[in-house]
Amino acid sequence: LSDTIPTSEVGLISKNTKIIGDVITTGHLDIEGIVEGNIEAVGNIRVSGKITGDVKCGSFLLNDGALKTNITAREDVSLGENSQIEGVIRCKNITACGVITGNINASENV
9-18, pLDDT tens digit by residue? Predict the structure, then answer.
C-alpha cells in the first residue's frame, strides 16, 4: 500500500464503535472509537479514540488521548497538547505538544 496514491474517501470509526482486528484502507481514516489491531492507511489518520496495535499511514494526528502504539508515517506526525504516546515514532517531521515516552526517528524536523 505504501506506493499507492490515497483515495479521497475518509473512513470513520465512530465513538461508539470497537473493532477487533486489523484495518487496511487506501483512503484516509478518522478514529473516534476503539481499534484493537494494526492499522494501515495509504492516506492520513486522525485519532481522538484509542488504538492498540501498530499504525502505518501517510500522516498521523492525535488531537487528544493516550495511546500505546508504534507509528510509522511517510510524512508528518502531530501530537496535540493533551496527547500522550508510548512507543516508537518513525516519520519525516514531528510536531509534539503532548508527551512521548519512547523513541522518535524523524528524518527531517523535530
Answer: 999 999 999 9
Amino acid at 97: C
Question: Cβ(34)–Cβ(14) under 8 Å?
Answer: no
Average pLDDT over residues 52-74: 94
- DSSP-derived letter for residue 33 is S
Q: 3-class DSSP state for residue 97? A: coil
> Quick one: residue 63, left, alpha or beta (phi over 0 = left, psi -120 to 50 = alpha)?
alpha
The single-letter DSSP state of residue 5 is P
Closest CA to 73 of 101, 88, 92: 92
